[in-house]
Amino acid sequence: MVTAIVLIECEKGMINKTAEELAGMPGISEVYSVAGRMDLVAMIRVSDDEHLAEIVTDKMLKVAGIHRTETLIAFRVYSRHDLESMFSIGFEQD
Questions:
Q1: What are the two backbone dihedrals, phi and then psi, of residue 84, each rounded to the nearest 5 degrees?
Q2: Residue 34 dihedral angles phi and psi, to the nearest 5°
Q3: Candidates 3.20.20.70, 1.20.272.10, 3.30.70.920, 3.10.310.10; correct CATH number of 2-87?
């Protein structure tokens, strides 16, 4: 599994439309609107680097409203939430 975090600066007045289009793309698991220098954060989770490259360098380039992006590739997950969900698959609590 390859995870990438894409920081997105949008054109003025395009944040909501851009977020909705991104959220509908296969491979993009979440899109957050955020405060600060960037407007949106997209979480990409795909099976391999080729799939990631296709989303970032092809599909996202066609989305209206994106002014600038910065892509961060995740190496490891340290989230307790994610670790617990991985180990709880198939486990039912009483």
A1: -65, -40
A2: -135, 160
A3: 3.30.70.920
Cα-only R_g, the chain: 15
The reported pTM is 0.82
Beta strands in the chain (DSSP E): 2-10, 28-33, 40-46, 66-73
Give the span between the Cα atoms of 88 and 84, in whole angstroms: 6
* Residues in contact with 74: Cβ distance below 8 Å, sequence separation at least 6, in sequence order: 2, 3, 4, 5
Per-residue pLDDT of 4-53, as tens digits, reads: 999 999 999 999 999 999 999 999 999 999 999 999 999 999 999 999 99
3-state secondary structure of 75: coil
